[in-house]
Amino acid sequence: MLLPSRPARLPALGLLTALLAALTPMATAHAAEAREISGGRLDWGIKSSFQSYVTGPAAHGSWELQGGAATEGDNQFRFHSAKGSYDSDAGAFDASFQGGVRFTGHKKPDGSYDLDLTLSHPAVGVSGGKGTLYADMTGKARGTGEVTTASHVPFASLDLSGVNLRGDDAAAVTLTNVPATLTSDGEKAFGGYYKAGTALDPVSLSADVGTAPSEKANEPDLPKGEFKEAAVDWGVRRTFREYVSGPIAQGSWKVGDGAQDGGALFRFPRGKGAYDAEKKALDASFDGTLRFTGKHLDLTLGAVKAAVKDGKGTLSADVAGGSGEGKALPLVTFDASALTEKNGLAAVTEAPAKLTAEGAKAFGGVYKEGADMDPVSLAVPLTATAKLPPLPNLGKASPSASAVPAPAPESAEASSSSDSFPVLPVVVAGVGALVVAGAVFLVIQRRRATPATGASDSVSGE
Question: For the whole model, what pTM was predicted?
Fold first, then answer.
């Protein structure tokens, strides 16, 4: 009685095995696809009230930026150069950012500080719909002064309600004003200034997906003394940028014609000119424009030039829109005595800069002649294979873009036909359905092959 049922059972098992073999690799391959993150920014004030406390009359302190971090608006810090991965099928995101900020306050007679806290290299991880912000921390515990250093501390939990990171093949991941709450580990790393569960400033970020920095093409060396593809980096002045983007001017800036925004500085690229190695002298012109706009403000800098002679440097530009308009105006002088040749580059890094009389007019008299401006960095490739110092990579997308909202609840039938519905769950569900169907089919075949006993067989009992 059992023999006739075997030929029917074997083809069914073979079909089921073939379908499972075909679908399982597809599901595995689809789940394994994670795209690289290269470039982006994270904007976060940590906690605005903490900033006010540090710089206020109680602590009489300050903060300083590190590692290319910048400011955004009047109370946010901007961290740069995102690196990591993004799996749109699983909605998993993992990216770390560069830069840091050090807070100091309550200065003691010996020059040290009772309050000394550094937060750097923030990272954001999202998995299973939950988000965490991590950071490297060094600080003194409040009261005891004990110094602790920890890496990748789960500093804050992120509330991702209404955010869906699945099924999106966009060129960038953006999150805007995500609520953040201090964790118990964050409480310890924060030196006990706030308790776990305290609301921190919201987090915004943008990260480019699927991009990678391009390699410099091999080119023949230029004639001795000539160069191209040089770069000059200058942030103008941090307080000026904060004024432009802050509540008074309510403005912004825009780079054009090849100039790049590095957050804490602007890069004017594709510099061409001549360099005298013996005299440590150079003359270079660069591409790019930089325009600041806001209330009662419209200032454009372009046609930037740098000249170095006898250890002194001058940065000039065409100025339009300011009270001191003109061509090739010397804006700042900088100390170029440290200009050296290394790794195929003639470079000076973060040279102190002073505002000129012409520069003071260009900025409408906001700063006086001789005022400290942001330092100047200059790099000139002397060989075709020399590489410029990396610029903080803020990514192509804006962190002000809206976060991806979670879709409204749908029926299973409607979801299965939606373009945004994740493929992996469908495949897994399909595999599960085939397994159940195969099991039911085999049970039915066994029942047909088994003599009746007066009691019905139960599928759940098989």
Answer: 0.68
Q: What per-residue confidence (pLDDT) applies to 324?
A: 85
- The per-residue pLDDT for range 66-94, each reduced to its tens digit, is 999 999 887 899 999 999 999 999 999 99
CA distance 314 to 334: 6
Amino acid of residue 44: W
What count of Cα atoms within 13 Å lies in the side-chain half-sphere of residue 323? 11
Q: Tokens 């309600």, residue?
A: 161
Report how far apart, in Å, the C-alpha atoms of 76 and of each of 73, 255, 427 are: 6, 21, 43
Q: Is the pLDDT of residue 12 over 50?
A: no
Q: Which amino acid is at 409?
A: P
* Pick from 380, 311, 392: nearest CA to 342: 380
Are 160 and 124 in contact by the 8 Å Cβ rule? The answer is no
What's the pLDDT tens digit per position in 362-418? 999 999 999 999 999 999 999 888 999 999 988 887 654 334 433 333 322 333 223
Rounded Cα distance, 276 and 281, in Å: 5
Alpha carbon distance 429, 187 (integer Å) = 42
pLDDT of residue 222: 61
Among residues 288, 376, 366, which one has the least CA distance to residue 324? 366
